[in-house]
Specification:
Blueprint (H helix, E strand, L loop, with lengths): L11 E4 L2 E8 L3 H9 L1 H5 L14 E5 L21 E10 L3 E7 L5 E11 L2 E9 L4 H22 L7 H15 L3
Helix pairs in contact: 3-4
Length: about 180
């Protein structure tokens, strides 16, 4: 049983090979949109890189996890430092909806979408990652997005992220149990 509640609750499988995570983020939709689309701001919680502001345009994400946390990167995760993910924007409707392809290691592309809705002075973000290859891919992306969204919440609140890696490792085990095989 997960102890995660509120803004740290586990994501769910909404369809075969699809994971959805919702978070209430501090600040207006336009501010959160900037953290999705601006390379420098996105680099503070996910990955830097150019992203076209129109459908069909390129997306390039370069991951520097060592810059997201004060804890050192464990040996088993060091291979992801500097990892580059290349995709294409599928849909871009500022500041409410963004989707793009996400290259999987098997040559097939999955799809990531962000939907933003105003919730008072804050923003409800719904992240959906679909067309995932299998249970292992679902566990990997769910725990990764969950951890990265925790970093985003910290960044938006002006707080530091102490340990990205221990949270990720813990979540991998939880998602492995929680998501359908």
């Amino acid at each position: 049983m997960s102890l995660h509640q509120g803004n740290d609750q586990l994501g769910i499988a909404t369809a075969p090979r699809t994971v959805r995570i919702e978070r209430l983020l501090p600040g207006p939709v336009e501010r959160v949109w900037a953290y999705l689309t601006d390379s420098e701001k996105r680099g503070k919680w996910l990955a830097k890189g150019p992203m076209a502001g129109h459908a069909g345009g390129p997306v390039e994400l370069t991951f520097r996890h060592s810059e997201l946390s004060t804890a050192p990167t464990p040996e088993k995760y060091r291979k992801y430092e500097g990892h580059r993910n290349v995709g294409k924007v599928i849909r871009c409707e500022p500041p409410a909806y963004l989707s793009f392809t996400w290259e999987e290691g098997n040559g097939a592309a999955s799809e990531v979408s962000f939907e933003l809705q105003a919730a008072g002075g804050d923003t409800l973000l719904t992240l959906t990652h679909s067309r995932l290859a299998d249970h292992g891919a679902m566990v990997s992306v769910a725990s990764g997005w969950h951890t990265h969204l925790s970093v985003l919440i910290n960044v938006l609140n002006g707080a530091e992220t102490a340990d990205f890696w221990s949270k990720l490792e813990h979540l991998e085990a939880e998602y492995d149990r929680a998501l359908p095989a």
